[in-house]
Design a protein that fits this description.
- The complex is a heterodimer.
- By secondary structure, chain A is of the alpha/beta class.
- Chain A has a single domain, classed as P-loop containing nucleotide triphosphate hydrolases (Rossmann fold, 3-Layer(aba) Sandwich).
- Chain A is built from 9 helices and 10 strands.
- In chain A, the strands form 2 sheets. A 6-stranded mixed β-sheet of chain A has the order 6-7-8-3-9-10, sandwiched between helices. Chain A has a 4-stranded antiparallel β-sheet with strand order 2-1-4-5, with helices on one face.
- The longest helix of chain A has 16 residues.
- Chain A starts with 5 loop residues before the first strand and ends with a helix.
- By secondary structure, chain B is mostly helical.
- In chain B, a hairpin with a 2-residue loop joins strand 1 and strand 2.
- In chain B, helix 2 packs parallel to helix 4, helix 2 packs antiparallel against helix 9 and helix 5 crosses helix 6.
- The termini of chain B are far apart.
- The chains are: A alpha/beta, B mainly alpha.
- At the A-B interface, helix 2 of A face helix 6 and helix 7 of B.
- The complex binds adenosine-5'-triphosphate (ATP) and magnesium ion.
- Magnesium ion binds next to helix 1 of chain A.
Chain lengths: ~240, ~300
């Protein structure tokens, strides 16, 4: 059987002395969209950061396309096919829009057809107009587009998206939802963290609720209706 | 018009040139410090000692191997750059997660070791290094006599500083460096080998110091302590310009050299302290430095 795009088993992660992830196990199949839900501070961002090797110490097993990454440095992990869009977008203030877009290099073994710059500018015309302005002068929505667009140029086939809908106007959120649908149809594997359940619900194939650094609930999209009550309890503040 | 405020114009202009020469050294050294500080977040106290090594390597190349000035102008930065790679890989890289004070102490220690080595071999009196043939003599500009070598120092260092500036601000390599200065972890998450970039940046920064050292060899005494004498002023320049600003460190370096030169003409008693007076004033008015961004 083909190995999952991402497979975590019993992952523990630390920031310095604080033990944040307590044995997370999950797998994302190729072409699947998996959404991580959970309350603030549950450990969802930390899960994505652990996959990228951006936390402190990590233990357990994290495989990307079947390759064990626990001992690897972050830049080597990325080349296995990962595109990372961090919380708060991570647009660089000292770089222009164009420089931000061109920053991530082509992966050493591209696993998807890298989107050309022209295709990106056609998809996001606003970015084309603002090519030469500093990345952080863009509106929140444009910055989010840029943060996603720049990882589509690299040939990554697994996208890690951390709360891309946060703080954006409804029209932009709808545009992002259409974009995710398109990317999914193109065969991308997507692991996304979402607070906005209404945004995530129609897109995801699989849901995982994280609580206190552990998986509290996991179920496929078809069971959404039957799990709704349990989900409401876990996500209530 | 042959004098200004009672000072003969040629004397004024030659002090101005001297100031520009000193300013060129300040600019090259503070530029390297700023680039290193930006990416590595350390204050490289060893910068002065590596500048001294550049000057000594130029002298040693000629003395022992018969390698002329032009060869050493390339070779000395290369040797010091390689030394920089070792310093960063073997020593500095373990200190990034700790407080600033550790890397400051380490690089201070490296300074003492390097200066100690050169002092024990060559004593504290200076070695003479002749101005290369092609740059000997002076050009009479009519209003002043311009020593060729000094003119070369100013032109060469401004050219190199501008080239470094363009590399950082205008190329994609520079964009990666700027991004790494802002958020190295995210840059690494894009698949860029940030640890290697850090090593090469340190090597590049100290190679620039060695280049300045070779330029200095024919006009200053080549001594083990020549770096320490200079680096204190350079730190003041960095503070005035604002830590981490590329263009800022170049302009501040040149500007302060000129201010120092003019002070020598108008009020010689203050010429060695004027930089620190400027520093105090700038810190009062703009704590982040002239070109630094307030955090
Ligand atoms: N750099 C850090 N150092 C120490 N602790 C951290 C760090 N980053 C996050 N934490 C802690 O780890 C826990 C999990 O944080 P994480 O960012 O993964 O939460 P999250 O599920 O993404 O929630 P949200 O994004 O809504 O805050 C929180 O208790 C947080 O305080
Ligand atoms: Mg988060």
């Amino acid at each position: 059987m083909e190995s999952p795009a991402i497979e975590l088993s019993d992952v523990h992660a630390w920031y310095g002395e604080s033990h944040i992830l307590h044995g997370i196990s999950l797998s994302v199949q190729k072409g699947q969209v998996l959404t991580l839900l959970g309350r603030n501070g549950a450990g969802r961002t930390t899960t994505l950061r652990a996959i990228m090797g951006l936390t402190g110490e990590r233990r357990g097993s994290i495989k990307v396309h079947g390759v064990e990454t626990i001992g690897m440095p972050t830049h080597t992990i990325a080349h296995l096919g990962l595109g990372y869009c961090p919380e708060e977008r991570g647009i660089f203030a000292s770089l222009t829009t164009e420089e931000n877009l061109r920053l991530p290099p082509l992966l050493s073994t591209p696993r998807s057809t890298p989107m050309s710059e022209e295709a990106i500018y056609t998809m996001f015309p606003n970015l084309a107009e603002r090519r030469q302005s500093p990345g952080t002068r863009l509106s929140g929505g444009e910055q989010q587009m840029l943060a996603v667009a720049r990882i589509l140029r690299t040939g990554a086939d697994i996208l890690l998206l951390d709360e891309i809908s946060e703080g954006l106007a409804p029209v932009i959120v709808q545009a992002l939802a259409r974009m995710i649908t398109t990317l999914k149809a193109q065969g991308f594997t997507i692991l996304m963290v979402e607070q906005n359940f209404r945004f995530a619900a129609p897109l995801a194939d699989y849901f995982i609720v994280v609580e206190h650094g552990e998986v509290a609930l996991s179920f496929p999209a078809v069971e959404l209706a039957t799990k709704q009550a349990e989900l409401d309890v876990l996500l209530s503040v | 018009m042959t004098d200004l405020f009672g000072i003969p114009l040629p004397a004024l202009l030659s002090q101005l040139l001297l100031g520009l020469v000193n300013g060129s050294f300040y600019a090259m050294l503070s530029l390297g410090l700023a680039v290193i500080f930006g990416l590595l977040n350390i204050i490289n106290f060893a910068h002065g000692a590596l500048y001294m090594m550049g000057a000594f390597l130029a002298w040693m190349g000629l003395e022992y191997l018969g390698l002329n000035y032009w060869v050493m102008l390339l070779l000395a930065p290369l040797v010091v750059g390689v030394l920089g790679i070792f310093i960063e890989r073997l020593l500095l890289q373990w200190l990034y997660k700790l407080d600033h004070i550790y890397s400051l102490l380490l690089t201070f220690g490296i300074t003492l070791v390097l200066e100690g080595i050169f002092r024990s071999f060559y004593g504290s009196s200076g070695q003479q290094y002749a101005v290369p043939d092609a740059l000997q003599g002076a050009t009479n500009l009519g209003f002043m006599v311009l020593p060729n070598y000094r003119a070369w120092v100013v032109v060469a260092s401004i050219t190199v500083c501008l080239a470094v500036w363009a590399l950082i601000e205008k190329t994609s390599l520079g964009a990666t460096l700027r991004a790494g200065t802002e958020n190295p972890k995210l840059v690494q998450a894009f698949g860029i080998n940030v640890p290697r970039m850090i090593t090469l940046t340190y090597a590049g920064g100290v190679a620039l110091a060695a280049f300045a050292g070779v330029l200095a060899a024919p006009i200053l005494q080549v001594t083990a302590l020549m770096g320490s004498n200079l680096i204190i002023v350079v730190f003041a320049v960095v503070v005035i310009g604002g830590m981490g600003s590329i263009l800022g460190s170049i302009l501040t370096g040149l500007g302060l050299g000129v201010i120092e030169g003019l002070t020598k003409v108008f009020y010689p008693e203050a010429s060695s302290t004027v930089v620190f007076v400027v520093m105090a004033i700038v810190l009062l008015v703009r704590p982040a430095g002239l070109f630094g961004k307030e955090k």
